[in-house]
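LAB NOTEBOOK - FOLDING QUEUE
OPERATOR: T.R.
BATCH SIZE: 2
PURPOSE: Compare the predicted structure-token outputs for two unrelated chains run back to back under identical settings.
PRIORITY: normal
REVIEWER: second-year student, initials M.K.

ITEM 1
FIELD SEQUENCE / FIELD STRUCTURE:
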Amino acid sequence: MIRVDAIWLALGASDLRAGMDSLLARVVQQIEGGARIHCAYVFANRGATRLKVLVYDGAGLWLCTRRLQSGRFIWPLQAAHAQSIAITQAQWEWLVAGAPWQHLEARKNITAV
């Protein structure tokens, strides 16, 4: 239903009481080029028990939430040099399931035996 070509995680904790406009302001401040069409921007609360996802579809904004019934999301800490990171669709699927998505990498060619 909602086309998403790229997924960005806002590193560190976010105040999820914030609405669409506050989250959009954070995207504009932290992502070079601002909010892009068909991109999802994901925010987590301090305990990584809830997520908010902001998606710009070119006509307007979508705001979605996700909460696990138990456990926490595996959420990256904020790095000194970066405030956001891009993840793949496969990493996203593992992240929203609460699985350790950081271990998924792009498949590489075998170059030595």
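ITEM 2
FIELD SEQUENCE / FIELD STRUCTURE:
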Amino acid sequence: MSQSLTDLRDQVRAFAAEREWEPFHTPKNLAMALIVEAAELVEHFQWRTPEQSADLDDNTRDEVGQEMADILIYLTRMADVLDIDLMAAAENKLAINARKYPVEKAKGSAAKYTEL
């Protein structure tokens, strides 16, 4: 069953509060933890071909899912600590990207917007 980002935020907030981790959950520490988890995610793909990276065995897929969950949890916690509405920020960023990468210029291209 899927839950909302607000529900996840509340669960993560309660998890941290129960353990009295708030003093450690500074934006700096959470950003550092997030990047460590992102690096752990990348490790699963480091030496794989593009084809291998898209065809993971069940164990690796589970491990990748756990790393992705860690990233989501830290990102959600950091947004909570900084009082940033992640959904609003994502919607805003998608609108910015739509302007940077108009379909007629970007379709089928991996070029950066400054190269289009």
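REVIEWER COMMENT (ITEM 2): The two ends are 41 Å apart (CA to CA).
FOLLOW-UP: none requested
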